Amino acid sequence: MKYSKLSVAFAGVLVASAASLDAMAVPITFTGSGTGPGGVPVAASAIFDIVGNNLTITLQNTSPSNSGQDVPGSTLTGLFWDFTGNPLLTPVSATVGAGSSILGACDLANCTGLTNVSGEFGYQATSFTGGADRGISSSGYLTSGISGNIGNFNNGLAGADLDKPASLNGINFGIISAASGFNPNGGLSKDPLIQDTVVFVLTGVNGLSITDISNVSFQYGTSLTELNVPGDPRDPPVLIAEPATLTLLGLGLLGLGAARRQKK
């Protein structure tokens, strides 16, 4: 069977449109909740979003209230997850989220209004809790691969050190809830903390989708022996298309039909 050049061209448009439709995906949110030391309720969320070669993760401490005295063991310090296909990722940036802030003074910089915390968080691909094969952390249970174990969210290089010690260590820059009533004990009151949200960007996910993400969990405290809360997907992955993509797909179908009528 022979087809006209017009038919072949419109068929190409149709295939391209379908490919674009499959590539469009909405972000997926994982949430988890549990009980920290002293009966303090904890909760967190992580939004994963893939656009092209970039993965953006919005990590938030969503604890609804601060009850009792807050301690390092109830402070969110890390996120673990598994990626199908074991992609090689590069940590690009770590930024304090909009409306969030750094509480407490930093030893080496004026952290008031500062948003770039790339030197205070590390990324590592290895085996973690719950079957995860990679993680992000502000604490020393993760190794950044850089001398001194300094945070590597600076295109894979060492970021600026804002507070002693230089390495990923202790509870420094752990994430606390924005809920009222924050009552830090001695282990928290002297260290800079991030209230609410941190946004991470990594590259190297081209060809992957949010359906390739699993085994998400939230890590608290400064050791892997402390509280770890599994994350459940709150929003199922749903493929969507932009209006322009739908229009292109419609034109492709109309054109293919016209080409067939012309052949007859």
Automatic annotation (TrEMBL):
Keywords: Signal. Residues 1-25 form the signal peptide. Residues 242-261 form the Ice-binding protein C-terminal domain. InterPro entries: Ice-binding_C, Xrt_dep_XDD4. Pfam families: PEP-CTERM. NCBIfam families: Xrt_dep_XDD4. This is PEP-CTERM protein-sorting domain-containing protein.
